Amino acid sequence: MAESVTKFDIREILRSRVTREAGFEGAVKTIKAYTLGVDSNETPAVDGREKYIWVREHGLNGAVHQVFNPDSIPRMVNFPCIIKYGPKEPHRWQVSDVDWDEVYNYPSYEGQSFGYGAHADNHEWPDYHQGSDPVNVYPRSLTSFRTYPSGSDLSVNVWAHRYPYKGVLKEFTGVAGVSMLSHQPGSGNALLVLVYLDKENNHIRTVEGTSIGDGATLPPFPAIPDNAILSACVRVDGDQTSVLEADILDLRMTLTESEKTEIAGSTAMTIDHLAVQEAQFDLWFSMHVLTGH
After folding, report:
1. In CATH, which of 2.60.40, 2.40.50, 2.60.120, 1.10.3710 is domain 9-123?
2. Residue 279: other Cβ atoms inside 10 A
3. Which letter does DSSP use for residue 269 in this model?
4. How many CB atoms lie within 10 A of CB 87?
5. 120-177, pLDDT tens digit by residue?
6. Is the dihedral angle over the CA atoms 181, 185, 188, 194 positive or is it negative?
7. Quick check: helix, strand or coil at residue 262?
8. Helices (H) and strands (E) in the chain, counts
9. 114 vs 101: CA distance, rounded Å
10. C-alpha dihedral, 155 to 157 to 162 to 163, nearest 10°
């Protein structure tokens, strides 16, 4: 009667296989090379073969290869790299790494992320076909007319913005150091300060809302002046000495001008008040995404 296979026997079989494969990997052929512009002077990409690039081996008579580049290096001409050809499937030349011994001599090396190839399409999200690692872009990420902390004191900066007013395209060039000090309530209280652009004179203005006891409740929104383009509300309490990102409630609208006019015409709200409603929804949506509730 044949002997049964024990757990010890299985472990030994697996260990022997791993040892054999490790020795097999040692036969991988590794070569130093440089990328080469063949189909274009601007890029080493191979026409018609996605993720393949042209390279030339080191040496006066270095062989030229089409090699697979799994985003290991940027698609730059004359870039030093390491390529390999393994005995296992898929049996192809492939970029394995940056040639770090050579790349230190590369022009403008300092500050470059040479360990990552060009891979913008991985993070893009076109219609019906997102990349492998798509990025969600929230309205807060957009820079135009964004209010953000100055970083040093109880003040904010506001990015530039362009807008139509009375048939003229106007340009606001941005401003730094919009102070909240004159609106700061007494200790133990908090309020919202509206940061807006006065369309009549193209200047940033601020107006405060009603002060309430400092706590979890969001203070009331300030009254919205006429001719105002809303940027943000800044929560200010009586004890803070600087503005943080968490203190800013973004009020910029993502609706187009025609959409805002249409909605305002079918509701009792003005166009400016629509911005407040949208901001409140965006705040709820952000909290929903972050907390999962």
Report:
1. 2.40.50
2. 20
3. S
4. 10
5. 777 888 877 777 788 888 888 888 999 999 987 999 999 999 888 888 889 999 999 9
6. negative
7. helix
8. 5, 15
9. 13
10. -20
